[in-house]
Structure to design on (139 residues):
């Protein structure tokens, strides 16, 4: 069970990392947006609702079943913020988390939107060209 709990924690870490970087990765692989948008929206919904993350709940349940101790302060608090000596409940820490998440996603989606705008502008006003005709050189 502890191996499963560790697997859930690894999956959770990958989900957080993907939520942070997915929009930027989509600059290279645009189809990632089909996965990133729902993942980012689900994570945002859980956070805005103030609900416990289902992945954290699953990990803690598996740890309990394995006889391992649980932890408080959620996934980010336990694995990232506590080791750095940051208080997960501090307003500055919460602000930092939201600014980082929003900033990276705004940057990625902004660059994607700018790219789409440039591509559509490039296509406007042009007529398809046929083969070029050479005019005979004057004699």
């Amino acid at each position: 069970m502890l191996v499963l709990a560790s697997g859930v924690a690894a999956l959770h870490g990958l989900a957080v990392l993907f939520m942070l970087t997915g929009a930027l990765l989509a600059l290279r692989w645009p189809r990632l947006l089909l996965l990133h948008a729902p993942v980012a929206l689900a994570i945002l919904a859980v956070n805005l609702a103030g609900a416990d993350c289902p992945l954290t709940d699953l990990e803690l349940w598996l740890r309990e079943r394995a006889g391992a101790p649980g932890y408080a302060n959620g996934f980010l608090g336990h694995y990232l913020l506590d080791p750095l000596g940051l208080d997960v409940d501090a307003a500055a820490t919460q602000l930092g988390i939201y600014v980082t998440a929003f900033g990276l996603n705004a940057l990625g989606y902004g660059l994607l939107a700018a790219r789409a705008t440039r591509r559509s502008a490039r296509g406007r006003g042009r007529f398809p060209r046929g083969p070029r005709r050479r005019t005979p050189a004057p004699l």
Summary: The chain has a mean pLDDT of 91. DSSP finds five helices and no strands in the chain. The CA atoms of residues 2 and 68 lie 7 Å apart.
